[in-house]
Amino acid sequence: MKNATKLSKRGKPTSALEITHISQHGVWVLIEDHEFLLSYKEFPWFKKGTVEQIHHVVAEGKNHFHWPDLDVDLDLDRIKEPAKYPLIAKISR
Question: What does DSSP say about strands 58-59 and 34-39: parallel, antiparallel, or unpaired?
């Protein structure tokens, strides 16, 4: 006889933001059942980050997120509508 456990539904995420995928185009994050692409064009700080650095994110309040290893702070509005917040500083090459 097999010993199987059925889960009735998916559990709640343990943090307000979850990294779901890192691709050649950017970083996919899940926030409150909505998935967003942080494209490298709009969020260039993530392009050179390691997987470990990108996954190390701290929720500082409900709508504010901090990547301490990358020195990046983003709020939910910037993630949802990056065009409203054009970059002021550029990364030097």
Answer: unpaired
Q: Pick the closest to residue 31 from 72, 84, 74, 71 (CA basis).
A: 74
Question: What is the three-class DSSP state of 30?
Answer: strand
pTM, whole model, 2 decimals?
Answer: 0.74
- In order, the DSSP letters of 40-54 are TTT-GGGTT--HHHH
CA distance linking residue 66 with residue 73, whole number of Å:
5
Strands 34-39 and 26-31, how do they pair? antiparallel
Residue with the two structure tokens 């910037």: 78
> Where do we find the tokens 């470990």?
52
pLDDT tens for 45-91 read 999 999 999 999 999 888 899 999 999 999 999 999 998 988 765 56
**Sheet with 34-39: strands ordered across:** 17-22, 26-31, 34-39
User: Measured between alpha carbons, how far apart are the two ends of the chain, in Å?
Assistant: 62
